[in-house]
From TrEMBL:
It comes from Streptomyces violaceusniger. It holds the Pfam family Lipase_GDSL_2. It comes from the Bacteria. Residues 235-256 are annotated as: Disordered. Residues 12-183 form the SGNH hydrolase-type esterase domain. Transmembrane segments: none annotated. This is Lipase.
Length: 256
């Protein structure tokens, strides 16, 4: 791949990971890796434009239906497509259908841009991740195939022990924290051929052991504040993104 390419525009497509949860700003909005990447790209390209169509909770079918058409019509230089993980983390999932929809999205987006970026999404290390590993690995293998087929850049976050470390994740155990998003932005930056500013995959220092009581207290808080509401939405067919508009629905000049 060529290095130090200048991109004049960027459209991000996906779910909560690309929306930026849970990299919270003081005003309660979310920033995230895509915003951080846009800021760095904008510093190299006067008049740089950025749109972020990602909405939390979206399944791959919704991403295809609601986001890929508008994204392709924008004709941006750079497009990132990350989706499907919300599907495979559900109790029942047709992984073949998810792969087919992801392929439809890539086929629509790849011809519309100079560079399409796909990702093997990160996963928080632990027993929950292990339960879904076969589905995730099947999805990621297909993403590798899509990358080769469309000459897309594939960023492998899933293989990173550092990004998978629980300390890189918000207390909801579903979304990266600010440091996690910062590392993802650096990973994509380097994958696009830019000079590294740091080692995004650098190991974290050894974790300080946490006592039994502190672990149980954290588990109870997680179940009450995050797991319970998540299960409730699944049982009632609701999504955290219902009725929510993208935070940057138009391809407009970026202002940090």
């Amino acid at each position: 791949m060529q290095t130090n390419i200048t991109y004049s525009s960027f459209v991000a497509v996906g779910d909560s990971f690309t929306e930026g949860m849970s990299d919270a700003l003081p005003d309660g909005t979310y920033r995230g890796w895509a915003d951080l990447l846009a800021g760095r790209l904008a510093a190299r390209s006067p008049g740089f434009r950025y749109a972020n169509l990602a909405v939390r909770g979206k399944l791959i079918g919704q991403i295809v239906e609601e986001q890929t058409g508008p994204a392709a019509a924008m004709g941006a230089d750079l497009v990132t497509l990350v989706g499907g993980l919300n599907d495979v983390l559900r109790p029942k999932c047709d992984v073949g259908r998810v792969c087919g929809l992801l392929e439809e999205a890539a086929e629509r987006l790849a011809p519309s841009c100079k560079r399409l970026v796909l990702m093997r999404s990160p996963g928080r290390r632990g027993p929950v991740l292990e339960r879904f590993l076969p589905r995730m690995e099947r999805l990621f293998a297909f993403i590798d195939e899509l990358g080769a087929r469309h000459d897309a850049t594939v960023v492998d976050l899933y293989a990173s022990e550092a990004v998978g470390d629980p300390r890189m994740w918000h207390e909801d155990r579903l979304h990266l924290n600010a440091e996690g998003h910062r590392r993802v932005a650096e990973a994509v930056w380097q994958a696009l051929g830019h000079e590294p500013e740091e080692d995004w995959n650098a190991p974290l220092p050894p974790a300080v052991p946490v006592g039994w009581l502190a672990r149980r207290t954290s588990d109870v808080r997680f179940a009450r504040q995050h797991l319970g509401p998540w299960i409730g939405r699944r049982l009632t067919g609701r999504s955290s993104g219902d009725g929510r508009a993208p935070k940057r629905a138009e391809l407009l000049p970026y202002e940090g």
